[in-house]
User: Fold this.
Amino acid sequence: MGAGVTGSVQSLLGTVVIAVFVITFIVQAFQIPSPSMENTLLVGDYLLVNKLCYGGGGLGNYVMPYRRIRRGDIVVFHYPVNPAQHFVKRVIGIPGDRVRLINKQVVVNGVPLKEPYANFTRPANDVFRDSFPRLDVAPGETPEWWVQLRKLVEDGRLIVPQGNYFVMGDNRDDSYDSRYWGFVPQANIIGRPLLIYWSVQEGDSEVTAPNSVAGKVAHFAYALTHIFQITRWNRTLRLVN
Assistant:
């Protein structure tokens, strides 16, 4: 009996260790908090993020199938202004690129980007948002970015410095992104969304995760007992691209 119990405990501990390793180094769960990536990602989508996709710049990069961050990649990262927050956006400019927007059209290195994923809901009436970069002050622009931006604009194009990325939300008219707060350093990038493992109906107040412990318990109980009603089955287990 003792040997059997010991074996069960060791098996349980082994499972826990593997789970902790996977969560720490390989994948991370992430919930979409805002509509800035619509219609690619929706509020209520729960993602698994591949943390190994881009590597860490060490010896492991030579033995694992890592790759460089590319234009068009969707990335999850620590928000540079407040690293405790996680954002998800699409990479538009990589190091060395010269980026500008002309009436909502993104132009990189003189070539207009083809962006079938871009979503527009408003007319082109915000000159800072839709024709970027501009050197006048814009609502929502951080003071630090206001200063840095002026040092990196040449011939009306923003130059992306080494080790940094320019990112934007697919929902271009409702995205707080690099246009307003600047670049994402490579060290801030956590990984690339791999899979929507669950998606719940937007606007269900009972599904919105509360802050209190009691609220979280009630939230979990509601989700568990209403899982078939609140799940968007057409989005669940969908690969992100």
